Amino acid sequence: MPEKLQARLGGHVLAASLAAQGVTHAFAVPGESYLDVLDGLYGVQDRLRLITCRFEAGAAHMAEVCGKLSGRPAAAFVTRGPGACHAAIGVHVAMQDSTPMLLFVGQIPFAETDRESFQEVDYRRMFQPLAKWVTQIDDAARIPELVAHAVDVATTGRPGPVVIALSEEMQTARVNVPDLAPTPLARPQPDPAALAAMQRMLGESRRPLAILGGNWSEAGRRAVGDFLAAQHIPVAVSFRRQSLYDGTRETFVGDLGVGADPALVARAREADLVLAFGTRLSEAVTQGYTLFDVAGATPIVHVHPDPAEIGRVFRVALGIACDLDAFAAALGNLPPVDGEWEEWTQSLRALRLAAHAVPAYPGPLNVAQCLRDLEGMLAADAVMTCDAGNFATWPARFLHVREQQFFLGPTNGAMGYGVPAAVGAAIAHPGRQVVAFVGDGGMLMTGQELATALHHGAAPIVLVFNNNMYGTIRMYQERRYPGRTIGTALRNPDFARWSEAFGGHGEVVTETAQFAPAFRRAAASGRPAVIELRTDPEQITSRATIAQLRAAAARKEG
Q1: Global pTM value
Q2: Are residues 382 and 323 located together in one domain of the fold?
Q3: Are 153 and 203 part of one and the same domain?
């Protein structure tokens, strides 16, 4: 006979349901609207670790980065009203990055609905355009069912975030329900006829270009990478997806996204076949939807787990809707194509090497050289997180990310992502080196999560690119309204001393030669560390100065 079930509080059932689904980390800013769930988490600490965060956006970013790294959702818990609003940015990141994630939001007592009760929000309406699915649990007996379904929705098809509101009464109701284990799921396989058609198209091509995007397992990344390398097809990664292909391979040609090499963008327009594997072919990747002809003049083979994404903007020559890892595995069984694009591949690779070379920037601190030095000091399996801002184009240009390394950034351009993402990665993977890239603007949005790192024994290294401005907006101002800048100047603290005030390690770098020793000291400290790079405000991008932008604007006006 099955063991007799014990009546449990709804809050306890919820915590146990998450643990039963294999969720290992929950990131939270505690709130009175889910006290009973907190008590339930107390009882499953041996299976599900609760991380106390300092800001709801930070908690959401930490949960999101765990999903990026593992392919399985982590949970974020926030309180109702303001807490949910703060966490919304993390949901938007997870949606645009196709990351599995669970956000639980405390809710008012359902008996008070539609009275504009304290902190009342209709979360179905609030999150509907931001999340893959939004629900509310009012009946405690349905907790295992809805949590299991939330995990399934978050991880199947195109992965994404699920938001679950938790009514107050439900958490204190006592119910006799079993925990539910994860459901094994057969992943959609690619059509063999479609694979054969792709091979035929590749055989007729002379200028193929692969663009990698989306989320792949480690085995999937390796399989698709080996296929493309063996065929010697030039490979570009989509916006902030540098993890998907080893940058040291002779077939890596750079990234397509914000700040992409103009020479690569120009040559990409010459491709006679585009292999779009996993990418949505989004606005950033396609340079405002201008990189290819929308009507399909350039043949595109589009592989994506969501059929609705195939042909959404660009008419494709061949669409393959399937699981990305299943597609990668199938590539290993395909016969090689005898292609005639070697010269084309070499020409694109030459562009990448030219862009990767370190220019002789004026001034004592050459950020490009610092990043090249960093490349040689990173661990073989280092995790890098990147905030949003103009500074982000520097690591994209001057770092080659290797096969076992991760480079993770928000494709929706969310400032404030880099530090909490690094903290979450360091907590979830305590044995790995974690390095964050962040601008001075983003650092003061969520940099307080260094306290979370110290509290939970994590030690990420944060590189702050400090030019005392919101650099991206200043760049656009100089292009459109040269010399008429307003609202973009910043006054910053001494970031090294700020880190030390938390109990972390701090360094200030003003000259190129100072960087490598500073990084080694930070890594050896065993504490969260901040290295402030005091960059030249005049060097607004890796390719232009403010004076050059103003001169270009003057020529355009003339």
Answers
A1: 0.95
A2: no
A3: no
- Tally the C-alpha atoms within 13 A of residue 555's C-alpha that lie toward its C-beta: 6
Domain encompassing residue 446: 358-557
Same domain, 228 and 134: no
How do residues 92-114 score in pLDDT, each as one tens digit?
999 999 999 999 999 877 777 76
Residue 180 lies in a domain: no
Strand, coil or helix: 396 = helix
Nearest to 433 by CA among 383, 374, 507: 383
Closest Cα to residue 107, out of 97, 96, 118, 98? Answer: 118
In the numeric block, the tokens 């939001």 are attached to 105
Which among 427, 377, 436 is positioned nearest to 406, based on CA atoms? 436
Instruction: Give the pLDDT confidence of 433-456 residue by residue, as tens digits.
Output: 999 999 999 999 999 999 999 999
What element of type H or E holds 465? strand 461-466
The count of structural domains within the chain is 3
- What pLDDT score was predicted for residue 111? 74
Q: Which residues pair with 302 in a beta bridge?
A: 276, 319
**Both structure tokens of 214:** 């989306």
CA distances 310 to 86, 100, 320, 353, 532, Å, are 32, 20, 8, 32, 43
Final residue in a domain of this structure, among 324, 354, 384: 354
Residues 509, 423: one domain?
yes
pLDDT of residue 2: 47
Beta bridge partners of 390: none
Query: Which amino acid is it at 292?
Result: F
